[in-house]
Design goal:
Layout: E1 2-9, H1 13-24, E2 29-33, H2 40-45, H3 47-61, H4 81-106, E3 110-114, E4 118-121, E5 124-127, E6 130-139, E7 143-145, H5 153-156, E8 173-177, H6 181-193, E9 196-201, H7 212-224, E10 228-239, E11 245-254, E12 259-260, E13 265-270, E14 272-275, E15 279-281, E16 314-316, H8 327-343, E17 356-358, E18 363-368, H9 371-378, E19 382-387, H10 392-397, E20 403-408, E21 415-422, H11 425-437, H12 442-446, H13 457-464
Helix pairs in contact: 1-8, 3-4, 3-6
């Protein structure tokens, strides 16, 4: 049996952050990885490949649909889907080598083992027939697509974010089940490539965890680009009567027109089905009971605010704890969990300060509280929403797509939440993240001089909307 200060099960962002923290502290660690290659979801089948292909789709689609009269004829480049997938694979391989494999080799005191780990006792795991013991153990096994109990779906076959990125031929049609961030990104990606896309969402709006104004604006834009939506829908079954898959849906509505379809059923044909309606933790094969570790619904590991499980010597971080399935959050949790485990400290993070984004075009970005969450916590809310036509830069570049919403504390005017739909919203949101983290008020935002003209002025305009009618205001009002 080989002993380590920390045994880390997983190979993604949380695991690497934990291994790096162990090395920084001069501790020994064993990193055990199975399933996806080193780097986990983000570099292999998540952030890196999807954002690359989304950009390829933008470069192909928007020149064909120019918004300026001077470019009214547009132009169409030749597009080769197979080449796009190969280029994506090259970028993934290069990034994985540089950011993970090379980094792992540089971490002193950290050893790596490829294999599937299972608990033997509290802090002892078996891998490939050998046994390893850690003073502490950190579980960072990530998550994967949650199957849905739809009759006929498994028999028909479905894609997820992994297999959709491995297709060798562009599908002519695609049904996306799930209108969350993953579903919308893949829907727009394939629509830009030329696939006919229908999105099915069970909740009353797409992006169910976002503000209604954000969801409606994104849906308006994507419908204008030809993506079809059924929202508030239930799926009866999936059949494969011939070459195409047939999805039978009931109820719901085509949200832009808000036309009720509550009594209707519809059969939607598609070459492929992409499942993007939730995740489950990759914990089923860990033999958690042997370690006294409890998992809840969908396999997510129960932890306290310091990422400690029911077994005080076992910690967990990243997607497998089910807090926020983001690469940045996983990395932060992994580093904090490792530090807590190895030093006996009690560090945590404030999830209200974490910005997150959906990389559609335009992008969606949010940080802090929604109006609904503020009402739940405080019993009152003060909010303002402005649309892109209130931002001077939008007129200059003929950008009509977008919305800015700000949520503040009614008594103190402290900024509690900002929600954006705009080009480059994922870059714009960091001003709001800093404002929320450091307790700034709407007047602090207003008193900060912004570059003119920029889309980031949308945040300032949203703040100014608490003090004046921004529809009747010159560009230069401070």
């Amino acid at each position: 049996m080989t002993d380590f200060n920390l045994v880390i099960v997983g190979g993604g962002a949380a695991a690497f952050a934990a291994a790096t923290k162990a090395a920084d502290l001069g501790k020994t660690a064993l990193l055990i990885n199975a399933g996806l290659p080193l780097g986990g979801t983000c570099v292999n089948v998540g952030c890196m490949p999807s954002k690359h292909l989304l950009t390829v789709g933008d470069e192909y689609f928007y020149p064909q649909h120019p918004r300026f009269r001077a470019l009214q004829n547009g132009h169409q480049a030749a597009f080769d889907f197979a080449t796009a997938i190969r280029e994506k694979n090259e970028i993934v391989a290069s990034t994985r080598q540089r950011n993970y494999q090379d980094v792992l080799e540089s971490l002193e005191g950290v050893e790596f083992l490829e294999g599937r780990a299972q608990f033997v006792t509290g802090t002892t795991v078996a891998v490939n027939g050998s046994v390893y013991r850690g003073e502490k153990v950190l579980l960072a096994t990530g998550s994967s697509t949650k199957p849905l109990p739809i009759p006929g779906l498994d028999e028909a076959g479905w894609l997820n974010n992994v297999t959709a990125l491995e297709l060798e031929r562009l599908p002519k049609s695609l049904v996306v089940i799930g209108g969350g961030p993953l579903g919308l990104e893949f829907a727009q990606m394939f629509a830009h490539f030329g696939t006919e896309v229908t999105v099915l969402e069970a909740m009353d709006q797409i992006l169910p965890r976002h503000e209604p104004e954000v969801a409606l604006e994104v849906q308006r834009v994507l419908e204008d680009e030809g993506i079809r939506f059924r929202v508030g829908v239930s799926i009866d079954r999936v059949d494969v009567p011939g070459e195409a898959r047939v999805v039978t849906v009931r109820g719901g509505r085509g949200a832009q027109r808000r036309r009720s379809l509550a009594a209707d059923t519809e059969e939607i044909q598609a070459e492929h089905i992409l499942l993007a309606a939730g995740i489950q933790a990759n914990t089923a094969d860990l033999n958690l009971d042997a370690a006294g570790v409890r998992a809840g619904p969908n396999g997510f590991i129960a932890v306290n605010e310091y990422y400690q499980t029911d077994n005080p010597d076992v910690f967990a971080a990243g997607d497998c704890v089910g807090k926020m399935a983001l690469e940045t959050v996983a990395a932060r949790e992994g580093a904090l969990a490792a530090e807590n485990a190895l030093l006996g400290v009690t560090r945590t993070m404030n999830y209200d300060h974490v910005p997150h984004a959906v990389f559609t075009n335009p992008q969606v970005a949010s940080v802090g509280l929604t109006e609904q969450e503020e009402m739940r916590r405080f019993g009152a809310c003060s909010c303002r929403t402005i649309y892109m036509d209130a931002v001077p830069k939008a007129a200059a570049i003929k950008e009509t797509r977008g919305v800015f919403k700000m949520v503040i504390q009614p008594q103190t005017t402290q900024v509690l939440g900002v929600h954006i739909v705009a080009p480059n919203a994922a870059d714009l949101i960091h001003e709001a993240a800093l404002a929320i983290k450091f307790g700034l008020t709407v007047d602090d935002i207003i008193d900060t001089v912004h570059v003119f003209p920029t889309l980031s002025e949308g945040i300032k305009r949203a703040a100014q909307a608490f003090r004046r009618d921004v529809s009747r205001m010159s560009c230069c009002v401070e």
